[in-house]
Structures are given as structure tokens and as C-alpha cells.
Amino acid sequence: MIELKNVHKRFGKNEILKGLDLTVPDLENTVIIGYSGTGKSVLLKCIVGLLRPEEGTIAVDHRIVADLDRDELADLRGRVGYVFQFAALFDSMTVEENILLALRRRGLPEAEMHERVREALDMVRMSGTELKYPAELSGGMRKRVGLARAMALRPAHILYDEPTTGLDPVTSAVMDQLMIRTRDLGVTGVVVTHDMKSAFAVADRLAMLYEGTIRQVGTVDEMRNSDDPIVRQFIEGRPEPEATT
Amino acid sequence: MHSPASLAAPWWRRIVSQVGRSTLGAGRAFGDVKTWRSLVLVQMRRLGVDSLPIAVFIAVFTGIVLALLSSYIFTGAVPLYFVGALVGKTIMMELGPVLTGMALAGRVGASIAAELGSMRVTEQVDALETLGYEAPSYLVVPRVLAATLMFPVITAFAVAVGVISGWITAINLLDLTSQEFVKGLQEFYRFKDLWFGLLKSASFGAAVALMGCLMGLDAKGGAEGVGAATTRAVVWGCQSILVLDAFWALVLL
Lengths: 245, 253
Hints:
Chain A is an alpha/beta fold. Chain A contains nine helices and ten strands. Chain A is globular. Chain B starts with a helix and ends with a helix. The chains are: A alpha/beta, B mainly alpha.
């Protein structure tokens, strides 16, 4: 379980997260929606310890991230996979080397590492690309390799940062399928997106981030039927909030 | 984490605290031998061996100019065999290390800053950390170590080439024989001339690589941010060389 309590994050005088509270239950996909620039990616980076909030606590599996020492943080990052918006593959390495890099840190036997690479690429349907470089792959393929890299560590949670942004509708649907399949394999997912089609497809629960706090959390049906004009405007993609009668 | 209290602390306390944190961080990164051990050799080839041609090119012309310049200064004033002494001492102690360092600040410093800057703005540095690596151990230490070890090697080549080019210039373009040139070279040579130059160049290597890493990892935004970081790395690298050059002269001469 991932729990965020009263999280504040500032960059200079600009406060992005303003006392955010959110609980991500295990074995579900929780999708965080919200306007661009509202701090969705910042939130993910705080969860995995890449950014440190000024106030509040973030606990992953009951361990408070800010209290972890270097080794404990490395251990936590082995349990929390991260799929970056633009995949963030190392461009000087092949697909196989990208995934192996994650595994080498864990000191696994060579044969097991190669088996995990094969398994992870197979899962995202990217077998046969082991020797290709990221520059030789399309955006969708890179994102799938990014997911394979995260999955190779067999994490308990995966954080997805805008997994379908910039992809064509078919590749987006493939990414959605992979996120659902990953959840079905027992991995908790936190998905940040403003692609509502994808959000509805993969979400067990949706949370809307608005002006630094969580505006509403609910199931897909609850969010679709929300009375909150801000939530409705975002979900329905209207330029103005719904007029209240 | 910067608490409001720490932000309100006096500037000197913040500096002391920052220096303390950086020292601890550097100690931890160098202690993480398992991470950087296998990467140093790769960086030594990239930063060192590949930089040899530019260092040799500069040394050839430095040797020529020094021989001609010293002949111009010494003619009619002191015996011409002093040309050998001036070429040898100047190249070993000053121009070899400094000009090589400056050239490599452009080549090595810029390449490190551009590479790490691109990694920073495309989230590859964040990705590295989510995989359990620390950027200082994986990215900074191998580059700083490689440059510290390879700058003296390249400088040694540059010194040798510079002296040889000065010698060839002297015997072909000046009224000087090989014996006279070598006499000047030997008469004033001290072992310190050599190690002083090589020690300086090791410190230049560390400074240039460190500036490249710091500026690259601090890059923000997109291509423009990487460009700005690269420029800063070269400027700070060159300035560090000049400051260190004066420091070593004050301390060791």
C-alpha cells in the first residue's frame, strides 16, 4: 500500500502539492488524472524518493520514504518500478543492456538475469529487439521496453508517468492492455495521465489532482457520475465548467 | 530536505552545511567501488585515448613557436643553446599541462556536460536512480577518476611531442645543432620539472571532469539548457585550470 499524508512540495515560491492525501490500495490500478502542470509527475517522483516533499509523509508498504537510508531506498526502488513518460532508456545501451542494468544491481546469477530479460520482453511483446538501440525503436516500443525494464525487477508496485501520451490509438490500447495485465499479475499500479480513454480503461479507482490536492477519489462509475463541476469538466473535456442550475 | 528553518540560517552556515553534505556525498560515491569499478576503463579510453590527437596537434605548434620565439629573444644576448632549455622547461612545466588542459576542457568538459545534461533532461538520470544506482557513483566518479589518470598521460605525450617539434625546428630553421639543443635541454633539466607538470595536469583533469559532471547534472529544460550547461562547463573548467595553475606555482615553486 502507498499512503500519502499532507504532502507539500514547493519549487522556490511555487507550491505544487498543497497538503495532498491519498491512499493507493494493493493490487489495484489507481489512476491520477489532472490538468498538465498540476504536479502529477512530481507526485510520482516523491513516492519513489527522487524528490523530497517539504512537509508530510509518504509511506510505501508501511515504510516512510523520507526515513530510509541509502541501502533501504535502493531496496525500495527495487520494489517500486517506474515507467517514465518518454521511457528514459539509456541511449548508449541496447534494449537488453538497459534491462540487464537494472538486474545487475541486484547481483543475480547471469543465467537468471538473461531469463528475466527474455521473460520481460516477452511480456511486453518485444522479443527479438534485444540488440536494438533505443534510437531504432518507435515511441510506443520504447515505452514497452521501459515497462519491461521495470517489470524485470518483479516489483510490487509500478508507477506509470503518462504511459500513453504521444502514442497512436492502437499503441495506446496495447499499453492499456499491458497495464491491466501487469495488475492481474499482482502488481499495484499508479498511473498518471490526462488521457481519459486510457484512464477509464485501466482504472480500478480514479483520483483527480487539482490545485495541489486530491479533489475527488472514486471508482470509474463514481467519477463518471460526479456532481463536482471541476471533475465533470475535466472528464468530459469541456472548455468551461458545467453551468449550475 | 530544506526546511524553512534551514533556509533562514545565516549564509555561512548554509555554505558549511552544503560543503559537509557534498564531502559526505563524495565519500559515499568513491566508497561505492562495486558501481564504478568496471566503468573507469571505458571512460579512460573515451576521455583519454580519444583526446590524444588534439593534444599532439597543439604540442607540435607550441614547440615550433617556442623554439622560434626563444631564438628571437636570445639572439645577441645569451648563447643559443638556451633555446633547448627554454623549450624543455616551458613545455614541461607550463605550456604542456596548461594548453593540453585547456584543449581538453573544451573537448572532455564539453562532452561530459553535454552527455550528462542530455541524460538529465531526458530523465535518464532519474531512471538510473530508480534502478538503484546513485548518479555520483555511476556517472561522476568514473569520469573524474578517468580524467585524473589520463590527463597526465596525454600531457606526457604532449610534452614529448612539443620538445621534439621544438628540437626539429631548432636544427632546421635556426642556427643551432642537435648537440647544442640537447645541451640546453639537459643542463637545466630537473626531475621536478616533469613531475610538477604531470601533477598539475592530474589536478586539471579532476577539475575539468568535475565541472563537466556538475554542470551537466544541473542542466534544466531542453536543448537550450544542455547548451548552456556545456558552455558553463568549458568556462568553469578553463577558469579552474588557471586558478589551480597559480595555486601549484605558489605551493610548489
